[in-house]
Amino acid sequence: MNGRRLAIAGFVSAGMILLAFGAQVSQRPSEDLQVAAAHLGGTPLRVRMTTLAGVGIDGAMDIAHHRINVSLVAGEAASLSVRQIDMDCYVMANGAFAPSGQAPDGRWMHLDLASLPARTRLQLTGAGPGQLGTMFTTAANVTKVGPREYTGSLDFTRASMYRMSFGPISLALVAPPDEVAADLHRNAVSVPFTATTDDHHRLTGVVIDVGAVADGLDKVTLRYSDIGVPVDVQRPPASMVVPMPAAFQHQIGL
Question: Domain for residue 109, yes or no?
Fold first, then answer.
């Protein structure tokens, strides 16, 4: 899977996907996954994810009320902290992610999301976990194997690009078909996953075996918790805030 790297432009590659369960369960588990994903659209929650290339994501988000407090870590070499309150977004970039000569480590870069073009602003503020239901249109052989556990497979060759945004940082969660290398195409048709839920049929965990696509790739693990708990985000001290440099905005694709 060539070229699959974490990019500061906001793309995390090679078919990561978030799954979500709602409170209603039908006789068709694959449809349950599609419908239930939409239930998280307006719900605050905590996300913990271990992704490809050693990237970890941990934090809380409430897309409906524009509250985000998330950290992204790429091993020991780089980290990003993102806070959003309404249309005010603050990003601290350290290590390899820091814009050289623009904002020193330990400073928060401020961006007024309302100043962005309307289309870009809509893409960022509307890209939450509740919109992931369409991804499950590619799910096959979905089976409920226990009171709170599902198994199935995803077809990455049919999955369209989906972005999940943390303020201005946008992650591409599924590679579009034309980015699936020809020699990996066959394996990408059926990528196994397992998911667990709580007694309210809300997602508590999901594991996607991306290693089934190619040797050397690992599993993607996601955990949801604190579903429905309000997200508290504090603004950084004014003395620690600088305007987001234009170079960094360009770096993240704005």
Answer: no
